[in-house]
Amino acid sequence: MPQQYVLVLNCGSSSLKFAIIDAQSGKETLSGLAECLGLENASLTYKLNGNKHTVSLAQNAQHAQAISLLVQLINDNKLSDQLIAVGHRVVHGGEQFTGSVIINEEVISAITKVSALAPLHNPANLVGIEAATKAFGTLPQIAVFDTAFHQTMPSKAYLYALPYALYKEHSVRRYGFHGTSHYFVSGQAAEVLQKPIEDINLISAHLGNGCSVTAIKGGKSVDTSMGITPLEGLVMGTRSGDVDPGLFSFLSNLGYSAKKIDNLLNKESGLLGLSQLSNDCRTIEEQYEKQNPQAILALNVFCYRLAKYIASYTVPLGKLDAIIFTGGIGENSNLIREKVLNLLTIFGLSVDNDKNLKARFGKSGIITNNNSGPIALVIPTNEEWVIAQDSAQLVKEVK
Ligand code: ADP
């Protein structure tokens, strides 16, 4: 059978992440990132067969120009004949999408409708869909939603205790994000545990710039920490996670506008706000080792909040088989994993320092030494592969 490649696109407001993935093996032939789109110093960096290249884009180049360059790269490297679909990461699918879909006019209008719930993400995703449709007119375009995996949550988990009309009339509820990642690592965990996914209960912690934790019962999301937007829950790089909602009126009485509060909670808080150093976990860890008090404070709040969430997610699960760490921090920070697991000894978890140190930089593995009870695992995530597999599957189904 000839190779079947899927072009995976992840559009941010000023960025475009792309990868050409073999839908059978998950191997990436071409991958890259266009950054600073719409700005003076727009550029595109790509990796082809292991070699890295950087190209400057025209001043103020937009997503369409980045995609034109991508088309050229695809053609120059004779990859177009094997391309079977373009898979798009779409952040918010509201309540309408419980799985991936082939994009048509109806899907575009549903993504547009739900954009008010993700104003930073969905409009950028739509720009990517439009540009890719123009560039790859003959290929099916697939939408894979961050929210879809969490649509199995029961109402007791997704409803806020607000007037019910806000849910009915304005769709105010918990949606959850990072669904593709939580789905992927839960499947991998079942393989490590050598049990059917239907028989196991997991808590997965996706810790990147954004952080979320999900309770997964028998392969289905039953609760998750992000809410109507990706701001709720854990401490993140620049996002506060949970705060008392009373803070809004307190800050507004101090003269803060809604926009300023939104900026403060999304861009100036989290590890950055607490440490006053950086949103980058590596910098904070370096300072933590040097006993910098702000770095110690930031990591303590981060780990305590995460451990509290993990402990609370044993409530919907009843029984816990494994905790999964993934995302840039989860996959690499042995320090954070150790601190979090040391707060969870009530569950019989005990860190194996050697295994914890080894499970870094793309290596997966069990990092606890329990003989019975739950274990903790490190599993590198691969959202792009899920998008490629879903896209290939949908293309197959319509043929
Ligand atoms: P995104 O959510 O944007 O996809 P990533 O999953 O790549 O982000 O995670 C980025 C985070 O991972 C950053 O805070 C970064 O500091 C952290 N990180 C990456 N490598 C390490 C490391 N070796 N040790 C600790 N943290 C790391």
How is this structure best described in words?
The protein has 399 residues and is an alpha/beta fold. It folds into 2 domains: 5-145, ATPase, nucleotide binding domain (Nucleotidyltransferase, domain 5, 2-Layer Sandwich), CATH 3.30.420.40; 194-378, ATPase, nucleotide binding domain (Nucleotidyltransferase, domain 5, 2-Layer Sandwich). Helices cover 39% and strands 20% of the residues. It is built from 16 helices and 14 strands. The strands form 2 sheets. It has an 8-stranded mixed beta sheet. Strands 11-10-9-12-14-13 form a 6-stranded mixed beta sheet, sandwiched between helices. α10 packs across α11 and α11 (293-312) crosses α14 (334-342). The longest helix is centred in the C-terminal third of the chain and has 20 residues, at 293-312. It is globular. It binds adenosine-5'-diphosphate. Adenosine-5'-diphosphate is lined by residues 208-210, 237, 280-282, 285, 327-329, 332-333. The site of adenosine-5'-diphosphate (ADP) has 13 residues, from α10 and α13.
- Provide the CATH topology of the largest domain: Nucleotidyltransferase, domain 5
Strand content: 15-25%
CATH superfamily grouping of the largest domain: ATPase, nucleotide binding domain
Small-molecule components bound: adenosine-5'-diphosphate
Overall structural domain count = 2
Q: Looking at the structure, what is the overall shape?
A: globular
- What proportion of the residues is helical, as a percent range? 25-40%
- Radius of gyration over all CA atoms, rounded: 21 Å
**Class by helix and strand content?**
alpha/beta
Number of contiguous helices:
16
Query: Which spans of ≥5 residues are poorly predicted at pLDDT below 50?
Result: none
What's the average pLDDT?
95
In what order do the strands lie side by side in the largest sheet? 5-4-3-2-1-6-8-7
Q: What is the CATH architecture term of the largest domain?
A: 2-Layer Sandwich
